[in-house]
Amino acid sequence: MADTTRIGSLDVFPLSLGGNVFGWTADQDASYAVLDAFLAGGGNFVDTADGYSAWVPGNHGGESETIIGEWMESRRNRDEVVVATKVGAHPDRKGLSAANIRAAAEDSLRRLRTDRIDLYYTHFDDESVPVEEIIGALDELKRAGKVREIAVSNITPERLEASLAVSDRDGLAKYVAIQPHYNLVHREGYEGELLEIARRHDLASVPYYALASGFLTGKYRPGRTVESPRAAGAGKYLESERGRRVLAELDAIALDRDVPVATVALAWLAGRPTVAAPIASARSVDQLPALLGLADLTLTDAEAERLTEASEASAA
After folding, report:
1. For residue 6, how many other CB atoms are within 10 A of its CB?
2. How many C-beta atoms surround the C-beta of residue 182 within 10 A?
3. Which residues lie closer than 8 Å to 192 by C-beta, 6 or more apart?
4. What is the pLDDT at residue 238?
5. Which H, E and C letters describe the chain, residue by residue?
6. What's the rounded mean pLDDT across residues 1-6?
7. β-bridge mates for residue 38, sequence order
8. In the predicted model, is pLDDT for residue 316 greater than 50?
9. pTM of the model
10. Catalytic residue check, 52
11. Rg for the chain (alpha carbons), in Å?
12. Is the model's pLDDT at 1 over the cut of 50?
C-alpha cells in the first residue's frame, strides 16, 4: 500500500473513498467493482454512514453499509479495510441520545457484517443532548471493542470544545478526527475556529465534498451539460468569479504536471493544515485513477499558493 497517514491509532490511505454513491448512483455490481479497484490501487479507507442512501426512492437507509459489508464478507478482506461510518441520520435512528447511539451502532455492525467499526462519527450534532451523554455512549462502545476510534462531523466550535473538555476531564474516549465540508471553493466553514480547535487537540481532518460535488474534477464548463444527480450543486460554482478563477489555476497546474484536474484539487486539500485524508467518491472504476493519484502528487509551495490565492473568498 502507498504511504499511509495516521488518524488516532488507525493507519489509512491518504484518500478516503466516499460510500455515499453505493446504493444510489452505483448499484451493487458497480460498487463492488469500485471497491475492488480501490483496494487494488493501494486504498484502504472507506467512508459511509447509516443514513446512506435513504434519499433514494425505495431505499430505507443503510444501503451503502450493507453493500460494503457484503463486499467485505465476499472478499474476506475485513482486516484490510478501515471502515468509517456515522450515527444520527438514519430515518429510524435520528439523533444522538445514548440509547440511540447504542442501537444505531448495533444496526451498523450488522449491516457491515463486522464486529467493530474502525472510525465512528457523530454525523450531525444533536444539541438537545448534553455532550456528556454523547461522549459517554461513545466511550462505552469503544471500551466494549465495538468502535476503535471516535470522530465528529457537522458541529459548532462551542460544542466541539465542550465535548473534548468532557473527554479530558472524565478520562473518556476522545474524538481523533473531524469531518468538515471543506474544499477549494468552500473554505470558510472550516478555516477559523474549527481548524484552530483541531490543531490544539491534534484532530485529523477528513473533509467531505472534497471535490465540490464534482465541480473540482473540471468536467463542469460553461455551455457544457453534465448528466449527474449532482449537476445542479456543482454547476453553481461556475456562476462565481471565485469558481472560474480556481478552475483556471487547476487547469494550468494539471497541464504542467500532466495529471487530472481532480488530482490537483485533492492534493491542495491534502496539503492543508490538519488534513489527513480528503473524501471523494467514484461511481465507476474509470473515475478512480484521478482519486488514487493523490498519493503520488505533492504540489510545490508555489503551486499550492496559486490555488490558495485563487480560492480566497475575499477575492470573489
Report:
1. 11
2. 26
3. none
4. 86
5. CCCCEEECCEEECCCEEECCCECCCECHHHHHHHHHHHHHCCCCEEECCCCCCCCCCCCCCCHHHHHHHHHHHHHCCHHHCEEEEEECEECCEECCCHHHHHHHHHHHHHHHCCCCEEEEEECCCCCCCCHHHHHHHHHHHHHCCCEEEEEEECCCHHHHHHHHHHHHHHCCCCEEEEECECECCECCCCCCHHHHHHHHHCCEECCECCCHHHHHHCCCCCCCCCCCCCHHHHHHHHHCHHHHHHHHHHHHHHHHHCCCHHHHHHHHHHCCCCECCCEECCCCHHHHHHHHHHHHCCCCHHHHHHHHHHCCHHHC
6. 78
7. none
8. no
9. 0.95
10. yes
11. 19
12. no
pLDDT at 221: 82
Q: Are 61 and 52 in contact (CB under 8 A)?
A: yes
- Check residue 193 and give its pLDDT: 98
pLDDT at 2: 58
Catalytic residue among 32, 52, 220, 237: 52
Q: How many Å apart are CA 3 and CA 139, to the nearest integer? A: 30
Domain 5-217+261-298: give its CATH superfamily.
NADP-dependent oxidoreductase domain (3.20.20.100)
Evaluate if residue 77 carries a pLDDT over 80: yes
Looking at the predicted structure, is the pLDDT value of residue 232 above 80?
A: no
Banded model confidence at residue 149, pLDDT cuts 50, 70, 90: very high
Residues 6+ apart with CB under 8 A from 271: 298, 299, 304
Q: What is the pLDDT of residue 25?
A: 96
| Residue spans per domain, the chain | 5-217+261-298
